[in-house]
Amino acid sequence: MEIVQGVHMIPSRISRMYLVEDASLTLIDAGLPWDARAVYRYVESIGRRPEEITSILMTHNHPDHTSGAYSISKRTGADIIAHEDDTRLHHSKGRDLGYMGMFNTVNLPLPFLRRAEVSQAASDGDILPIAGGIQVIHTPGHTPGSACYLMKERGVMFTGDTAFSNGKTVSRSIPFPGYDREAYRKSLERLGEMDFDVMCGGHGSPLVGNAAEKLRQLTAAKPELPTWRDLLLKRIPSRISKAKSFSGED
Ligand SMILES: [Zn+2]
Ligand SMILES: [Zn+2]
Prior knowledge:
Blueprint: E1 2-4, E2 7-11, E3 16-21, E4 25-28, H1 36-45, E5 53-57, H2 63-66, H3 69-76, E6 79-83, E7 88-90, E8 94-96, H4 111-115, E9 117-118, E10 120-122, E11 127-128, E12 134-138, E13 147-151, E14 156-160, E15 163-166, E16 170-172, H5 181-192, E17 198-201, E18 204-205, E19 207-208, H6 211-221, H7 228-246
Parallel strand pairs: 4-5, 5-6, 6-10, 14-17, 15-18
Antiparallel strand pairs: 1-2, 2-3, 3-4, 7-8, 8-9, 11-12, 12-13, 13-14, 15-16, 17-19
Helix pairs in contact: 5-6
The site of one zinc ion has 4 residues, from loops.
């Protein structure tokens, strides 16, 4: 499905992948390992070849977005680009996608993530020489190395799991274990200060038209979701102590 000229959404059963058409092709997120065939089929349906995919940009390292990257990069030779904080240094050779945020303490049988070499560790402010320039915006919170990608020329922001849409409004992602609430709040505010018309999230449907304004409405209007940790450590004890002080107890 073409969202705006040259920007396509390729649905995976769980997450969303995006394809940017230029002289070469760029994939934003890579779905699950078995999504590779859907990517190749889609690329062929628009008259291009899978070998034209030269870059795979990762919005963050959760397996529903990254675990397809290894096989696609192996077949096409595409570079994998991810923010350094969601990658893992392996030996002295380089980085891979082995780091997986909340999963990093569990040794999951996902060897393809350890084999997926990151060709370029992206940093905040980098402008990738793709489709007239794609800006890397480090938006920690959902994971430490979450990144959004702004395609200024076409007014498109790829937000991964930092913000979602149902096609009409913008919503927040669910707090996962390992999520940093304060960093997340700041990241959303920062995104809201930017200028973009279209928002392509990692799940749901893309939002076309006034996307930055709709994100600002979300950050302005809705109170933040408390985390379980927050409820357990702060809110409940403070209610108990308030109740005590009202009743005259120490
Ligand atoms: Zn995620
Ligand atoms: Zn996700």
